[in-house]
Specification:
Length: 214
């Protein structure tokens, strides 16, 4: 589907949802120093053809302006004429959409997600066992255990993408960059937000548990 054929109301809904989510997350201080990025897909999806709205690069996410978001295609290129630049990490969103067909991806930087990614980077994943919030990922096994993938972080964003491709687990709707932040996704904005909130709870839980062990 070409971008022009995507109904206007879908585009407007995506921008409205992004603005609402951005405001909520900014109030939690999840975007320090203009960090983080949010995106919502619009229109139909095939692995090589899709579009999504994403936060523009370098914006103060604690305020709302007409220049906060833009639409891009499956290669991360603007889908319409604009002077805005998409987030530097747009290619990571592109790869997650390509692999999962999800409807929204939210990425934030927090102290706890950075700390646990450093604690477990040699393992390559963050282990979580028997915590109630695992159910947020529709994993209902009693005393469930999950591994949240960690990928290396590079200044050159395209170098990160192959690691995302290799480590992404369709059963776990999130992947974390070492000393950087979590990408969480879902079928829509509500589900992606639920998953992100659950991940952040689990990261704090794991970190505090490690402190108790020491």
């Amino acid at each position: 589907m070409t971008f022009a054929k995507i109904p206007l109301e879908q585009k407007q809904r995506a921008l409205h949802e992004l603005r609402e989510i951005k405001t909520q997350f900014a109030a939690r201080n999840w975007f320090p120093g203009t960090s983080g990025n949010l995106s919502i897909r619009v229109g139909e999806h095939t692995p090589d053809d899709f579009h999504f709205a994403i936060t523009a690069s370098g914006k103060d996410k604690s305020v709302n302006t007409p220049e906060d978001f833009l639409f891009v295609d499956a290669e991360g290129k603007p889908a319409e004429a604009t002077s805005l630049k998409p987030s530097a990490e747009t290619l990571i969103h592109c790869e997650i959409y390509r692999m999962t067909g999800c409807g929204a991806i939210f990425h934030v930087h927090t102290v706890f997600n950075n700390l646990v990614s450093e604690l477990f980077h040699e393992r390559g994943s963050i282990p979580v066992k028997g915590v109630e919030l695992i159910k947020a990922f529709n994993i209902w096994t009693e005393d469930a255990e999950i591994e949240i993938p960690i990928v290396p972080n590079f200044a050159h964003i395209p170098s990160i993408v192959p690691h995302v491709t290799e480590k992404l687990n369709p059963q776990i709707p999130g992947i974390i960059l070492r000393n950087h932040g979590i990408y969480a996704w879902g079928a829509n904005a509500f589900e992606a937000k639920r998953h992100l909130e659950a991940f952040e709870f689990l990261f704090e839980y794991v970190y505090r548990s490690e402190l108790l062990k020491r």
